[in-house]
Amino acid sequence: MFDDFFDNDWMKKTNATAPAINVIENDTEYKVEVAAPGMNKEDFNVHVDESGNLVIAMEKKSDNEDKDKKGRYLRREFSYTKFQQTLILPEDVVKDTINACMCDGVLRIELPRKAPEPKDKNMKVIEIK
């Protein structure tokens, strides 16, 4: 079931410069990792949209310049990077407790899962007459 939500082969083809994304699943949570070297947390906007999807947006403007000693530009490059990815979240994600952190050039988003309901709750005893 998880693969239906996060397994999107089309994502590779939409943007050749899109950052690499890992999705990890365990019993208690899903983790999304976005490769973002040179970025900082202010460059990202992570939110759950009105449809309940996880939206990861990144925008970075940089101004790299090399000057000689007199201050005349020998080279000046402007760079602009923008990226947005929307992930459909599985039903068992607790959306109110999603958190994210930026560490060592990787944006990490933790998506806690609801604890599975015990199967005994669904059991119905039938009286034998």
Question: What do you see in this structure?
Answer:
With 129 residues, the chain is mostly beta strands. Helices cover 8% and strands 45% of the residues. It has two helices and seven strands, in the order H-H-E-E-E-E-E-E-E. It has helices at 2-6, 10-14, and strands spanning 21-25, 29-35, 44-48, 54-67, 73-87, 99-103, 106-112. The strands form two sheets. A four-stranded antiparallel beta sheet has the order 1-2-7-6, with no helix packed on it. It has a three-stranded antiparallel beta sheet with strand order 3-4-5, with no helix packed on it. A hairpin with a 5-residue loop joins strand 3 and strand 4 (54-67). The longest helix has 5 residues, at 2-6. It is rod-shaped. The two termini are 41 Å apart. The model is unreliable at 9-14 (pLDDT under 50).
Which labels suit this protein?
129 residues, mainly beta, four-stranded antiparallel beta sheet, three-stranded antiparallel beta sheet, 7 strands, 8% helix, 45% strand, rod-shaped
List the helices and strands and how they pair.
Layout: H1 2-6, H2 10-14, E1 21-25, E2 29-35, E3 44-48, E4 54-67, E5 73-87, E6 99-103, E7 106-112
Antiparallel strand pairs: 1-2, 2-7, 3-4, 4-5, 6-7
Cα distance, first to last residue?
41 Å
User: How many H/I helices?
Assistant: 2
Taken in chain order, the helices and strands follow as HHEEEEEEE
What proportion of the residues is helical, as a percent range? under 10%
Alpha carbon gyration radius = 22 Å
Strand content: 35-45%
Q: Structural class per helix/strand content?
A: mainly beta
Round the mean pLDDT to the nearest integer and report it: 81
- How would a textbook summarize the main sheet? 4 strands, antiparallel
- Residue ranges: pLDDT <50 for 5 or more in a row? 9-14
- Name the strands of the widest sheet in spatial order: 1-2-7-6
